[in-house]
């Protein structure tokens, strides 16, 4: 039965429609319906198996490039190169798949923390007495009669049969922060209220409660009308199609294709140049393949996976943050826009009293005292299980002793038709009188007060001004009546004397203001996407210190009037988006991405799912509804902005190391390739043997593992870390050219040193000299072009410093070791080392000067250096 159909019927008609009664179903009926209709569950995503994750990791662009190079190497019988490449691919894929599999297992363990039972009335036989029992939510069927109490999750779509002071939180479905009053209404015409965009809003129907909401206060008995995939909860959940590429994927793909073009051009160029100028044929093919491999950052998959896996492991251990998709950690580091809801993130899910005002808008503590009398005695005499959030706020502000000065007589609790509650009390020292204290919605109270129309209009205008400023209002009125013994009824709520207004605002999260300042300092713009009233959202922003200008707030109706291009421009400069539906949130997130931003989205309800999938990285707290938590890329232990800051820091930490690795490796490799191609055309022999190129690459690759354990400079954590292909191309071209100049200067040094020693035609000595120079220049590049510096590291050597020292030692000692002759190298003359030291000193000076200029330009452009 559709919930909308249940809204148009009386409770008796609904019970007949689902073939049930106030006593519930029998066990036999429930079992039969469970077999016919299926379990009360939303289809959940199954975590991919480890073999599937392993196969998926092979689709990484660099991994595919390496596999192609390995295939070419095997075709030309360069078995050493092929084996090394295959080993790197296997290690990278295993590391990535194991990390993601562990994250999926951690997510599976969170299911145990979610409530999975409901209180239902069942009978063993048609004539049996119904008994309340706890059963798994999955076993609920249409026609079951369930009981709801404070804190309960609504287990299915239900129609209320009885209720007492029932209010529910529907934020997971609608985004509204305030609890919504519900009641077993059978009055004709009480149906859905109009939504912000005009059409009827089924969530505003007082007699219906929906799966995914929770009971804030009161109690109720309801009949289940829809379960499983037929609920509104399931209808709001749409399995997305193929997800768009994330920021990490786009960046890696862009850099990959730049390198792929270089690598595809390198072997043919080497072959053609050697054939035209030196008359060499296919014998240079292994050398050409080795040069192409030398341009490739072979360790990138391993470095990326190791950096992200270490960051994800550290987050899980220290902050309880689970990264389900490893590349999402890089996306967090690149986030420059964070979209989030207001309730539960910036404000607590409870109100606090702001002021108590009289009819003239002046502060009046008597109004708060009368409101507290109403809240206290309604709670005591109406037999409500617990006060709702508004009553709790009033009692906290007024103090516990104030209501006890009056003696309670009776109470008429709040219901969604009257929209007010009444407490009847005996005023102290005044025998024979009863005082009616009425509190509720402004319009409902004012229409029961004895006043002139002009006075009522003035009070409504005052209430509208306060509401526009983001405050929630309750009106309070009183009436003195002669004491009596017969019952008081809603018909007595007339001829009241208006007392004043109680204004309430949302309580702020204690850490929210500080977290917002930290985000601003880190270059992350916060966008608030909320279903609340624009005034409520603006008030929360002002309380948090966020200054809103005239164009900093957009409402849903204005968003609907914008094209996608207009919304992309408006979204970049807007801070608050109010009255948002799930579709609005997703469209805003898409618009921000279209404007070039890397977006993160924090959500916990079903209404957040579309935006969660539209963002580069979806974030959800552990307490989020199941489908939202399972759809997220990152899961927080608590819905706390501080945890997101920790995650962003970890993402920038990992991304900074990856970016540093890429800059150093690609610039050094490009310089070596340019020099090697030039030397191949100038020399009568190959500048390096394929085995020597492979050995050099292996040494450099081993040293590069240190980047996964490096400590970036704090400046690298102050701005989003984005792998921009154009920026990388400019960097590697500039520093690669400088590296090539140093290599070509080494040719001159080698020629002079070898000519002085009478070994100008000795290929082995030339190979040894260039091998040593290459490893020493790469060690210098690792030290001088890394993201950190000595001031950030203190006196303790960093892992990169140790790795660079080891690389330099290998470069100096390998030609002298027993491994030198098998690799075609031999000892160098002493003069070469003196001249090489001079070249390296000039090269280091040039590196530092060019890097300082690059850092200044990056800081002016707002890019992390």
Please give a quick description of this structure:
By secondary structure, this protein is of the alpha/beta class. The chain is built from 30 helices and 24 strands.
Structural features, described:
Among the domains are: 3-40 and 140-236, Distorted Sandwich (Calcium-transporting ATPase, cytoplasmic transduction domain A); 336-347 and 510-629, HAD superfamily/HAD-like (Rossmann fold); 355-503, 3-Layer(aba) Sandwich (Calcium-transporting ATPase, cytoplasmic domain N), CATH 3.40.1110.10. It contains 30 helices and 24 strands. Strands 1, 2, 3, 4, 5, 6, 9 and 10 form an 8-stranded mixed sheet that branches. An 8-stranded mixed sheet has the order 11-24-23-22-12-19-21-20, sandwiched between helices. A 6-stranded antiparallel sheet has the order 13-18-17-16-15-14. Strand 15 and strand 16 (433-440) form a beta hairpin. The chain is elongated.
